[in-house]
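Our consortium's second objective concerns turning raw sequence data into structural hypotheses that experimental partners can test. To show how far this objective has progressed, the report includes one record in full. It was chosen at random from the queue rather than selected for favorable results. The single chain below, 136 residues long, was entered without modification.
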Amino acid sequence: MTSPLTAWYDALAAGDLVTAAQNLTEDSVLHVPGRSSNTGTYTGRDAVVGFVAHAAEVTGGTLDLTVHRVLDDGEWGVALCTYTATRPDRAHPLENNLAHVARLRDGRIAESWLHSRDQYAVDEFWGEQAPQEVAS
C-alpha cells in the first residue's frame, strides 16, 4: 500500500491539488515553524492545500520538491525532501532540506510538522521583503 505521504508528494509534483487533498483528513492540521509570513498552524484540508497553492503562486511556479525517502509505519510517517524555489523579488534562490513528520489516521495525513535544515534561510525567503533604502 502506498504511503499517504508518497501519494501527497506525487500529486503535488503533478500539480494536482485535488488529488493531493484526498490524502489529507478533513480536519488535517499543518504546523509551519518560523517567523515569516507563511508561518503558523493551518487547520482543515482547504487551509493546508491553500498553504501549498500560495507557495506555488508566490514562487511563480518554480517550487520544486524532491522526495528522497518516505518512512511510514501506518501511524506515523516521515518524508525526507529537498525543495528549491525562486522568487522574482528575491536575489537568491532557496534550497532547503526538509523533514515532514506526519501523524496518520485512516490512511491519510491527519497532522504534520515541517522541520527545515536552515530555518533562518527559509524565513528570509518566505518572509516579507525588507524595505529598500532610498538614496538621498
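The partners drew two points from this record. The chain has four helices and six strands. The first strand starts at residue 24 and ends at 32. Both points have been shared with the crystallography group to help prioritize constructs.
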